[in-house]
Amino acid sequence: MINTYQIIQKDPEPLIRRLHNHAQNHNSDYYYQIRSQHDLDDRVEIAARFIYLNKTCYNGLWRVNSKGEFNVPIGSYKNPTICQPEVLRACHAALQRVDVRLRDFRKLDAGEDDFIYFDPPYHPLDETSFTSYAKNGFDSRDQEGLRDICLKLDKRGAKVMVSNSDTRLIRDLYRSKDFKIEEVKAPRLVNCKADKRGAVGELIITTY
Fold first, then answer.
1. Start-to-end Cα distance in the chain
2. Alpha-carbon distances, residue 57 vs 34, 54, 81, 164 (angstroms)
3. In whole angstroms, what is the distance from residue 202 CA to residue 163 CA?
C-alpha cells in the first residue's frame, strides 16, 4: 500500500498505463495469473497489481496466507472500475509535499503538535471473525502494545486517535482516564451473506 502511495506521488502516468492494460485483459484466468505474481520487482507493477486485485477481488478484501501471499478469490463484478486516471492524478496532486513512509508503528517518533491516527487490524468480535490480514497477525499482545505506545505519545504532547472494534478487550485496554471512547457505527460489506452485512459497532479512542 505504501509503495502504491509513493508511486502515485512520484508519477501516476506509468501506473495508469499499466492499469489500463489490466482492465483490457481482465477475466477470471487473468485475475488468477496476476494473483499468483507474489515476487514482482518492478515497483509500478507491484502498485498496479495491488490496485487491480483490490478492484476485482471478492468485496475488496485484502487477505494473505501464512507465506504472506494474497489469496482472495475473484469477485463477481460485471464491469469493475479498475483504472480511474483523474482520481489518481488528483491523489498525485494531494500527495505533493507529503512524506510517505513505511515504518514500524513501534518506532514512531512524534511529539508535541503532532496528530497520529492508528487503524490497526481490528480485534475480532468473536472466535469466528476473520483476522489474518497480515502474515504475522495482530494478537491481543500487539493490541496492548499499541495502547502503551498511545500513552507514550500522549505524554510527549501528541494527539492520538485509534479506531477498533467494540469488544471487551479493547474497552478494558483503553478504560483509563487518559483516553476518551466514542461509539460509532460503521458499514461492513465483507460478510458472504448479504443479509448479515450492515453497520456494526466500532470505537473511536482519543487522548484529547
1. 29
2. 11, 6, 12, 24
3. 7
Count other C-beta atoms under 10 Å from residue 188's C-beta.
14
Asked if residue 155 lies in contact with residue 182, where contact means CB atoms within 8 angstroms, the answer is: no
Amino acid at 172: D
Instruction: HSE, CB side, 13 Å, CA atoms: give it for residue 163.
Output: 9
- What domains lie within the chain, and their CATH numbers? 2-94 (1.10.1020.10), 105-206 (3.40.50.150)
Distances (CA, A) of 53 to 76, 106, 156: 13, 29, 40
Judge whether residue 196 has pLDDT over 70.
no
How far apart, in whole angstroms, are the C-alpha atoms of residue 47 and residue 99? 18
Q: What is the pLDDT of residues 72-86, one digit of tens each?
A: 999 999 999 999 999
The four Cα atoms 190, 193, 196, 200 give a dihedral, to 10 degrees, of -10
Q: Confirm whether pTM is higher than 0.70.
A: yes
Classify residue 142 as left (phi > 0), alpha (psi -120 to 50) or beta: alpha
Which residue type is seen at 190?
V
Show Cβ contacts of residue 200 under 8 Å, excluding neighbours closer than 6 positions: 125, 165, 166, 185, 186, 188
